[in-house]
Amino acid sequence: MNYVFGPVSSKRLGQSLGVDLLPSKSCTWNCVYCQLGRTKAFVTERREFFPKEEILAEILDSVTSGKKIDWITFVGSGETTLYKGLDWLIAEVKKATKIPVAVITNGSLLSLPEVRKELLEADAVLPSLNAGSAELFERVDRPAPGFSFERHIEGLRRFRQEYRGKFWVEVMLIAGLNDSEEALKEMANVLAEIRPDMIHLVMPTRPAPESFVGIPDEELVQRAVFILSAAAPVLHPAKGEMKLGSADDLLDTVSGIATRHPVQERELEAALGKLFDGDAAKIREAMEMLLASGRFEKVLQGGELYWIVKSA
Ligand code: SF4
Question: According to its UniProt record, which cofactors does this protein need (predicted)?
Fold first, then answer.
């Protein structure tokens, strides 16, 4: 197979059959975290890089192979929408199977009406947004000349207005780069305007071309989940589990955690469940004791209840 790989197990898309439409590496950006390495030469012109009939034949071979496939995912060795003819491929796949189709894209070409039109029949489109300001956008995504932050945001916004499928924006969180409170609030403001159905928070877990790229610690990730939840529900696939040492110092332990980042109520309940072996009466009693202490207040954000420490 030249174009199709998998199905691979994906946290977000289950068993995902990948379809790579591009010669490596063809991209409009040069992200600091790119697992394909640095972009040696930008590619900005859209083309049918490989014959679409050959790509379709491989997809149909895999679909009829009997393997479990939850999603057919167009994803490139670079920017997927550089491939001209995505609409034809999506339409032909849909004629042949009911398996939903996803397109993973950096979103940089969504400012072009023809690109937006080519994606309309996809079941899910997952563009990237890694910054809420032009300055940070340039530092993280290092786009080709002409691919400005404003153009990127405008493309996402317009696509949101025209598209009826699932619109899941992917945010790559990088330690020390876009994980500060200020950066996250800027991003949340921009995301609130774009109105994605969901935000997928991802980490640079694979080797990056720049040595300074690192994974934020769990506290900062939790803070990011909380701040970004103001714009849309946040899916954080690699989320860690909250652990409570013992029942003796429960109030101090939970206060200590909530002082550093908001605590999701259902996570707190799950942690108490572990502590008390699922004893519902003890869990309820502990929750009531914590609330009665007066140290916490509950905040609703992105459909989730969080506990935060009351300011003095
Ligand atoms: S958009 Fe994707 S392929 Fe392009 S440089 Fe960034 S991470 Fe790499």
Answer: [4Fe-4S] cluster
Residue-wise burial string across 49-72, b where 16 or more C-beta atoms lie within 10 A, e elsewhere:
bbebeebbebbeebbeeeeebbbb
21 CA distance to ligand 1 middle (Å): 14
Q: What is the DSSP letter of 143?
A: P
User: Which candidate, 188, 249, 176, 190, places its Cα nearest to that of 224?
Assistant: 188
Pick from 36, 108, 202 the residue to mutate for probing ligand 1's pocket: most ligand atoms within 8 Å of its CB.
Answer: 36
pTM, two decimal places: 0.84
- Determine whether the shortest distance from the Cβ of 27 to ligand 1 is under 6 A: yes
| Full set of structural domains in the chain with CATH | 4-235 (3.20.20.70), 250-309 (1.10.10)
Measured in Å, how far apart are the chain's first and last C-alpha atoms? 62
Report residue 233 as tokens: 């529900």
> 72-123, pLDDT tens digit by residue?
999 989 999 999 999 999 999 999 999 999 999 999 999 999 999 999 999 9
CB contact set of 142 (below 8 Å; sequence gap of 6+): 29, 30, 31, 32, 39
